[in-house]
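Slack export, channel: ligand-projects

TW: morning all. Re-posting the request from yesterday since it got buried. We need the structure predicted with the small molecule present, not the apo form. The ligand is pyridoxal-5'-phosphate; the SMILES is in the block with the sequence. No rush, but it would help planning for next week.
GE: picking it up
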Amino acid sequence: MIVDLRSDTVTIPSEEMKAAMLNAKVGDDVFGDDETVNKLEKLSANLFGKEAAIFCPSGTMTNQIAIKIHSNAPGEIICDELSHVYKYEGGGIGFNSGLATKLLQGNAGRLTAQQIKEAISVDDVHFPETQLISLENTCNKGGGSVYDIDEIRKINALCADKKLKLHLDGARIFNALEESDYTAKDIGELFDTISVCLSKGLGAPVGSLLLGNKSDIQQARRIRKVLGGGMRQAGYLAAAGIYALENNIVRLKDDHKKAKILETTLSQISYVKAVLPVYTNIVVFEVIDSIDATEIIKKLAAKNIKVASFGPQQIRLVTHLNFTEEMLEKTINTLKQL
Ligand SMILES: *Cc1c(COP(=O)(O)O)cnc(C)c1O
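GE: finished. pasting the full token output, ligand included:
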């Protein structure tokens, strides 16, 4: 038995999902002819109460497209220093949109309206003009942290007042919804655009969606084409996305439960210095100074448990739909006996 906790992207499509893919009605999506892609776009837009959606190969692409359509270089984007858009998208903000990035230090990846307010450039030719704000919910590098809706409302009001665009990297938005008192529609109201990943906890093999109003998504289609992301019979992939949205959201709480159990286990282990608070399906822990984290990673790998390095002395475990009760038990026992 191999246990893979490196990410929730490692999931393999179930038989039911594969059947949905094989039976998909497809067409050329660049011509707008793929009815399964059209259905997925409509379904996801409706879910969040947005006008339109566009299906893309990855969350990096949906984020980068959003940043591009909301900006006009020279200018700047404001985001948390832990943001995926800044940290894990290969420098795409500068490469694709020619923007400067102003990084703020939030609480586990979460910014406050007050912080953003203080960071917005004053109107002076010396400073890059602030054009958009990007938030991440849940925040990956923040250990799967979840935003409070009241703070997002304040940020939304600030953006409206300052005429700034507001984007959400919601790669794991459904994990956030599971652990909060707000709905997809509440979130939809507060952002100009939202990225949603189908290939993380939802278990689809490929694909992300960008949601927004009609004119933004129309512009997004142009940018997706330029980036080489216009796909043809993409309905085979979209069918997996539809299956994921219809079947794999409710079970996310199981992943969260397992993550909590891992948190408890880790907090009692002598080679663990600290466990970051677990909010959703991401568990990050720090190894004590006298041991090298890579040593622990190697030892776990030797026992067929794969985990990810997450910075100096930090290790990340992500629970997902292929991580069974049996695997959880094996992981707990192995961690304890290492
Ligand atoms: C995974 C992820 C993305 C998108 O990643 P892709 O691998 O390009 O699909 C974006 N934001 C966050 C927070 C993520 O975890």
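GE: first-pass observations. The mean pLDDT is 98. The radius of gyration is 20 Å.
TW: perfect, thank you
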